[in-house]
Amino acid sequence: MSGALRAPPRSPAPPAARRQRAQALLGAAERVFARAGFNGATTAAIAEAAGVPKANLHYHFGSKHELYHEVLARTLHDWLVPMDSLVAEAEPRTALAAYIRAKMAMSAERPDASRVFANELLHGAPVLGELMRTELRAMVRRRRRSSKAGSQPVAWRRSMPLISSSPSGRRRRRMLISTCRCALCCGRARLSGRDHERATEHVVTLVLRGCGLA
């Protein structure tokens, strides 16, 4: 029998390993996009930050645009989780304040995600706008179906425009983001825990007043 022996074909990585690599790429992309922006980021820099070959990035996400979309989608999904507490049976002021504090805590825990999110909004939200028209709008509709509008407290009906995907809702969110940014500008490169507490209470007061709950 002649000819060189062939190595057996490599088996594909188990699903858990693929998910782990994908999550590593998303985390690295979040950091790189936060610092370089979409235009300044490169797939090579993201792959290097994730510690994987560049080919792995294209295997999992195809392109830089697709990866950017997934970073924003993951951030939006994670930020919508605290909205589970916004139910018709909850006391509006308490539930809305808890939601805002949860969102602010997530911003402190994942500052890079916050930077990518804010930068996307500042550039007109070309990717995030579509996500908000689909995922966020579907969530708001589910909440409206779960409770009859007539049985909702007046305060809840006042607060709905803040989370709505309508043009007025988007304007309110942009104003809130600008105010949050001002609240967080303390003349320091890094905020202390006390700085973040003060900024959080500022935003809570701002939103509650806007909803007639303060």
What does this structure look like?
- This protein is globular.
- By secondary structure, the chain is mainly α.
- The chain folds into 2 domains: 15-62, Orthogonal Bundle (Arc Repressor Mutant, subunit A); 73-210, Orthogonal Bundle (Tetracycline Repressor, domain 2), CATH 1.10.357.
- 72% of the residues lie in helices and 0% in strands.
- The model has no long low-confidence stretch (mean pLDDT 77).
Briefly summarize what is shown.
With 214 residues, the protein is mainly α. It has 10 helices and no strands. The chain has helices at residues 15-40, 43-50, 54-61, 64-80, 92-109, 111-122, 128-146, 154-163, 167-184, 193-210.
Low-pLDDT regions: none
Q: What name does CATH use for the topology of the largest domain? A: Tetracycline Repressor, domain 2
Oligomer: single chain
Assign an overall shape: globular
| The named CATH superfamily of the largest domain | Tetracycline Repressor, domain 2
* Domain count: 2
How many β strands by DSSP? Answer: 0
Largest sheet entry? none
The portion of residues forming beta strands comes to under 5%
Which CATH class of the largest domain is shown?
Answer: Mainly Alpha
The chain-level mean pLDDT equals 77
Just name the CATH architecture of the largest domain: Orthogonal Bundle
Estimated structural class: mainly alpha
Q: What's the Cα radius of gyration?
A: 21 Å
Helix content: over 70%
Number of helices: 10
The secondary-structure element order is HHHHHHHHHH
Amino- and carboxy-terminal Cα gap: 87 Å
